[in-house]
Specification:
With 340 residues, this protein is an alpha/beta fold. It is built from 13 helices and 13 strands. It folds into 2 domains: 2-157 and 320-336, NAD(P)-binding Rossmann-like Domain (Rossmann fold, 3-Layer(aba) Sandwich); 161-316, Dihydrodipicolinate Reductase, domain 2 (2-Layer Sandwich), CATH 3.30.360.10. It binds NADP nicotinamide-adenine-dinucleotide phosphate. NADP nicotinamide-adenine-dinucleotide phosphate (NAP) binds at residues 6-12, 40-44, 82, 97-100, 107, 125-127, 152, 156, 318-319, 323.
Length: 340
């Protein structure tokens, strides 16, 4: 499988690490032998070689700060613009691991459309295009008879979408309700120990959980983008961010947390979607709710189903290898898939 990797930051590097560490197992057990034919960044160069790039040399070059540090070889092309690189690289699959833009989802959406035009399957960990332009992408996938996969956009490599769509196939899912943002869950968990909102936000930023501008996390917008993806992917619901009722955790005080504790409850930022709509808001959950016990930066989701009742999955919702694994899982799924 020839792969083009657009975005070579934390997740892209985590994905290449996994390919390196598990290459023997991937080949012998799964028959999976990936070749990286192109890698692109925004400010640290791009590389393309139709016969494949050396994974160790790629990681060394980016660790040294720029893909220009990759050694010269016959046939290597440097610094092609991303769309030209997608046109010329001959990949079977394009991985979109560039920056999430929840305003326009660009330029990642154009990367995906260009990949489909070139007959490539598309795998995203970037939420933007799936949250904002799902129909456009799905139509392009269908027209070109290629797959659109995006497991890593919700709960990283914890298989929230695959569980719902494959393992629960045949059940009717009536709602999805989850803790989909690790930063705010970490903050609420710390606040239960009496740490103020301001102090825990500073702590989350210092630990790298929260961005310098934390609005997407604490305002509920990151969870809302994931709710849209679930609404689309599970229910076919044509929602936009404006259709969701979104409230973050910015107004939650230590007094609120304490009042919940005294009532035997716990505050969680809950994203909920059904076929009709959805919301993201802080909710006081009874301790018996499986989501109430999910602490720290973990994520979890409960699917309400007709045949099984509630089914809850919890696990990491972010991380270099946790999200890199999501791309591997999607690639293995593409490899297994045989159209009828
Ligand atoms: N990190 C996580 O745990 C996690 C979990 C789930 C989903 N995600 C999603 O996965 C994606 C990647 O996350 P990350 O943590 O790896 O981010 P990151 O470390 O900031 O890396 C982003 C990469 O994308 C590149 N990039 C940005 N704009 C680009 C463009 N227009 N064309 C080509 N490359 C571009 C950046 O280039 P430079 O190297 O020049 O900056 C960088 O290499 C994001 O969309 C994120 O929301 C991340």
């Amino acid at each position: 499988m020839k792969i083009a990797l657009i975005g070579f930051g934390t997740v892209g590097q985590g994905f290449i690490d996994i390919l390196q560490e598990k290459s023997d197992i991937l080949r012998t057990i799964y028959g999976f032998e990936p070749t990286i034919v192109a890698v692109a960044t925004r400010s640290r160069g791009s590389l393309m070689h139709p016969n494949g790039l050396d994974k160790t040399a790629l990681l060394t070059a980016i660790e040294q700060g720029h893909l220009n540090n990759y050694p010269d070889t016959d046939g290597l092309q440097r610094d092609l613009p991303v769309l030209d690189l997608i046109d010329q690289c001959g990949a079977d699959v394009m991985l979109e691991a560039s920056w999430t833009n929840l305003d326009t989802a660009q330029p990642a959406t154009d990367h995906c459309l260009r990949a489909f035009q070139n007959g490539q399957h598309v795998v995203l960990v970037n939420k933007g295009p799936v949250a904002l332009h799902y129909d456009l992408l799905q139509a392009a996938a269908q027209q070109t008879n290629r797959q659109l996969r995006y497991e890593g956009t919700v709960m990283a490599g914890t298989p929230s979408l695959t569980l719902a769509r494959e393992s629960l196939a045949g059940c009717t899912i009536t709602s999805a309700r989850g803790i989909l943002n690790g930063t705010t869950n970490y903050m609420l968990t710390q606040m239960e120990q009496g740490v103020s909102y301001e102090a825990v936000l500073a702590d989350a930023q210092a630990k790298g959980y929260a961005e310098a501008d934390p609005t997407a996390d604490v305002g509920g917008w990151d969870a809302a983008a994931k709710a849209l993806i679930l609404a689309r992917g599970l229910f076919g619901a044509n929602l936009t961010l404006e259709d969701l009722d979104v409230t973050g955790i910015t107004d939650i005080t230590l007094d609120d947390i304490e009042a919940a504790r005294q009532a035997g409850e716990r505050y969680k930022l809950i994203a909920e979607v059904t076929a009709e709509g959805g919301s993201v808001r802080p909710v006081r959950l009874p301790l018996a709710d499986p989501l109430a016990g999910v602490s720290g930066s973990s994520n979890a989701i409960t699917y309400e189903t007709d045949l099984l009742g509630g089914v809850t999955l919890s696990g990491p919702g972010a991380g270099k290898h946790e999200t890199g694994f999501a791309m591997l899982a999607d690639l293995l799924a593409i490899m297994r898939y045989k159209p009828l």
